[in-house]
Amino acid sequence: MDFQIREAISANMKGHSPSDIRGVVEDAIQRGEEHLLPGLGVFFEKWWKIADDTKKNAVLNELSTAFK
């Protein structure tokens, strides 16, 4: 993924409320368009960098369940 995408998404989302971010995520998932996947990846990357090991393990368990 190109760093320009990361920077553009980060700049675009700066200052958004949790409700705003939820709307963006749900809209991207509902649309199901492949070109939106890198943006969701940036969201996950941002979260991963600030999450502690407990939160990371919890989401990894959830993802493992979702992919069964």
What this model shows, in words?
This protein is an all-alpha fold and 68 residues long. The chain has one domain. It is built from 4 helices and no strands. The longest helix is centred in the middle third of the chain and has 14 residues, at 18-31. The N and C termini lie far apart (27 Å). The model has no long low-confidence stretch (mean pLDDT 94). Belongs to the SspI family. Keywords: Sporulation. It holds the Pfam family SSPI.
Summarize the helices and strands and which ones pair or pack.
Elements: H1 3-13, H2 18-31, H3 37-50, H4 53-66
**Beta-strand content:** under 5%
Main beta sheet, described? none
Mean pLDDT: 94
Instruction: Bin the helical content.
Output: over 70%
Beta strand count: 0
**Principal-axis shape:** globular
Low-confidence stretches: none
Distance between the termini: 27 Å
Overall structural domain count: 1
Radius of gyration: 13 Å
Helical stretch tally: 4
Structural class: mainly alpha
Order of helices and strands: HHHH
